[in-house]
Design brief:
By secondary structure, the protein is mainly α. The protein is built from 6 helices and no strands. Helix 2 crosses helix 3. It is rod-shaped, with a radius of gyration of 43 Å.
């Protein structure tokens, strides 16, 4: 409600806002409370009293609120909450570290097998080729 509307309604219906028609009473009281007039405290008090007198079913309101809470809690998410929690992130990082370590050991073991067999062949008396390939067994050598 604007000041012009308020003044027009005050001239039309009088200074007592409680006597105004119901559709105009609420906006007028709100205007007085927000406008900072001398009667703002009284207007705010009237608004609070008027809101307290509104009839309503508190149990129905509580049921609606609880139903909305339950509906929001049962909504499935794409990512489980455990993975988003700090403990879940730490567990995922630890699992990734263990997996990377095991994979590293496996790759290193496979690489070391060819070197071990070359060293064993050299120790058994095989000669090295000039092109840097694997050791060549001699005529009497058995690998």
């Amino acid at each position: 409600m604007t000041r012009e509307e308020f003044e027009k309604n005050r001239r039309r219906f009088g200074d007592d806002i409680d006597a105004w028609p119901a559709p105009l009473r609420g906006p007028a009281l709100a205007f007085m409370a927000l406008d900072g007039d001398a009667g703002a405290d009284g207007a705010l008090d009237r608004l609070v009293r008027q809101a307290a007198l509104v009839e309503g079913d508190d149990r129905a309101l509580a049921r609606k609120v609880l139903a909305r809470i339950d509906r929001g809690a049962t909504r499935p998410s794409l990512v489980p909450r455990f993975l988003v929690a700090p403990a879940g992130i730490a567990a995922c990082a630890a699992a990734l570290l263990v997996t990377a370590t095991i994979a590293g050991y496996q790759v290193a073991r496979l690489q070391d097998q060819s070197q071990d067999s070359e060293l064993l062949a050299l120790a058994a008396g095989a000669r090295l080729p000039e092109d840097g390939g694997p050791p060549i067994a001699g005529e009497g050598d058995a690998l």
